[in-house]
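Work Package 4 report. The design task specified in the project plan requires that, given a folded chain encoded as structure tokens, an amino acid be chosen for each position. We show below one input record used in the internal validation round.
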């Protein structure tokens, strides 16, 4: 049986773990799907390429208020789609070819198929060669689980019998649907609702809870839900009881769906997008056979050094991290790389201030605790809210809906949470992430540096100055 120094399962952040310092190691990297993983192929990167085009397509509708009359002439979806994947697909193929064929990787074997444990640091890879099932078994000194997550498909009656999409497939549609129904009210729903509505689709969002982006601070979720309802048909507090096929034009390929909701109403759509969360791929790995413990939600349990319960087995990214964010997977990959190379001087992941952004319209970005989390933890806190409308660049943009909300500890002056909804929120929040990460208190942050006038970060400066500290 073949033995490796290191086996990596998954080629998303797992693939970026390797560097020239591993040149003397005999390594295998296993992939069951498209080389490069979720972020590159079906996640962050293509979605944001669509979002940028959608932001442009949405501009004419908002420009008239500023006295600039623009019209949107056309959205050439096939061209947008082919530009996005014309750039991404070759990167995935090139990444795989580099690992398989480049002399730099003479010490790396790329195995295609699904890896699963058959014992302690022992795995089998089930694949197919020329249509025949194959299985290769090997042992390894060290194994890194970087097998990611996949979309959850809820058990809605009828769903299995109708055509539906997840984020894995919806970006490759042949055309923009006239009517798009989205089940779910989280990140993916908010981003695709923006993209498809900006491109001309009538969008219906069906959410079980009473607001969209419910995990955001309540003021942000409320504001986003209010704005979303002005743009899309938003059905809140509704469960989908059943989905049926909606025959259209006698052509099965054109069939749509009819969703029956629990209030008796129906939603008809040409395309259905299911965006109800993602589940870690741990079930594919037979973790018990390898002595790898899972949390009740199915995440591989890791300690601060990213070690699992099995000796010599590490995990990183979506398979072990409930944040399910690429920058977290990348951070953890760097930690695992260090710990593999320097077992005597291990380092720990830093999950103190994990930020995120939702690239919808308006953008939403957040770091640290929400106000409700601060209350649940019994913390003493103060807050401030600064509208974009109150800063000069907000006047320039005629923004009337965006704001930054800060939460701080009144005793130390340190920030404990920052939440922004509004133009470029994902960028504007970065100095707050920095301040929290490096322990800079709000007053020093506000007055210890210049803030370029009249730029958008003045929304942060003013929010800092308004904290009652
Ligand atoms: C639509 C969408 C948009 C997103 N946008 C953002 C964003 O803007 N910003 C952000 O930070 N995050 C975003 N994310 C999340 C981000 O993509 C993930 O957090 C990140 O890609 C996880 O990386 P990973 O390396 O853990 O897993 P992946 O990149 O998923 O890699 C895991 C790989 O393992 C393979 N695999 C699984 N099981 C096995 C097995 N048993 N054997 C062999 N191979 C296996 C899979 O095929 C996959 O290629 C988005 C996700 C989606 C779906
Ligand atoms: N910009 C980004 O960073 C970005 C973008 C997209 C995705 N992601 C990552 O991918 C993950 C998955 O995204 P997502 O939007 O699918 O998940 P999510 O957890 O953000 O939202 C899931 C939504 O589905 C609803 N839901 C769950 N089960 C349901 C059911 N059975 N029926 C109806 N509704 C149900 C939830 O109430 C919630 O509104 C995110 O949590 C995030 O970590 C990140």
């Amino acid at each position: 049986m073949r033995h490796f120094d290191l086996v990596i399962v998954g080629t998303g952040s797992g693939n970026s773990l390797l560097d020239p310092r591993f040149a003397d190691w005999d390594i295998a990297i296993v992939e069951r799907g498209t080389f490069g993983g979720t972020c590159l192929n079906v996640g962050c990167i293509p979605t944001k390429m669509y979002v940028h085009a959608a932001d442009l397509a949405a501009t004419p509708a908002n420009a008239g208020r500023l006295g600039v009359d623009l019209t949107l002439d056309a959205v050439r979806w096939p061209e947008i789609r082919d530009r996005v994947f014309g750039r991404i697909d070759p990167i995935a193929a090139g990444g795989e070819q580099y690992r398989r064929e480049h002399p730099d990787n003479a010490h790396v074997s790329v195995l295609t198929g699904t890896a699963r444990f058959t014992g302690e640091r022992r795995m089998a890879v089930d694949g197919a060669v020329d249509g025949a099932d194959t299985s290769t078994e090997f042992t390894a000194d060290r194994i890194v689980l970087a097998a990611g997550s996949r979309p959850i498909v809820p058990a809605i009656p009828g769903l299995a019998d109708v055509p539906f999409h997840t984020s894995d497939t919806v970006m490759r549609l042949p055309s923009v649907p006239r009517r798009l129904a989205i089940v779910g009210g989280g990140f993916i729903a908010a981003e695709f609702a923006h993209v498809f509505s900006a491109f001309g689709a009538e969008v219906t969002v069906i959410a079980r809870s009473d607001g969209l982006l419910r995990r955001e601070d309540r003021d942000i979720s409320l504001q986003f839900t209010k704005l979303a309802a002005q743009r899309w048909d938003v059905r809140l507090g509704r469960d989908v009881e059943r989905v049926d096929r909606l025959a259209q034009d006698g052509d099965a390929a054109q069939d749509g769906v009819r969703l029956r909701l629990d209030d008796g109403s129906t939603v008809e759509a040409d395309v259905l997008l299911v965006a109800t969360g993602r589940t870690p791929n741990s079930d594919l790995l037979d973790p018990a056979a390898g002595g790898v413990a899972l949390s009740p939600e199915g995440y591989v349990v890791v300690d601060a050094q990213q070690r699992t319960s099995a000796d010599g087995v590490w995990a990183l990214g979506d398979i072990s991290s409930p944040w399910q964010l690429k920058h977290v997977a990348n951070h953890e990959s760097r930690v695992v790389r260090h710990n593999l190379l320097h077992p005597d001087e291990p380092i720990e992941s830093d999950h103190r201030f994990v930020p995120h952004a939702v690239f919808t319209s308006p953008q939403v970005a957040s770091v640290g605790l929400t106000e409700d989390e601060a209350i649940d933890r019994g913390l003493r806190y103060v807050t401030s809210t600064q509208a974009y409308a109150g800063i000069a660049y907000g006047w320039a943009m005629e923004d009337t809906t965006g704001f930054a909300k800060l939460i701080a500890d009144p005793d130390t002056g340190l920030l404990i949470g920052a939440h922004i909804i509004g133009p470029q929120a994902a960028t504007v929040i970065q100095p707050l992430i920095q301040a929290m990460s490096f322990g800079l208190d709000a007053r020093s942050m506000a007055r210890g540096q210049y803030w370029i006038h009249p730029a958008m970060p003045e929304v942060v400066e003013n929010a800092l100055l308004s904290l009652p500290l």
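The chain is about 30% helix and 25% strand. Validation will be extended to a larger panel in the next phase.
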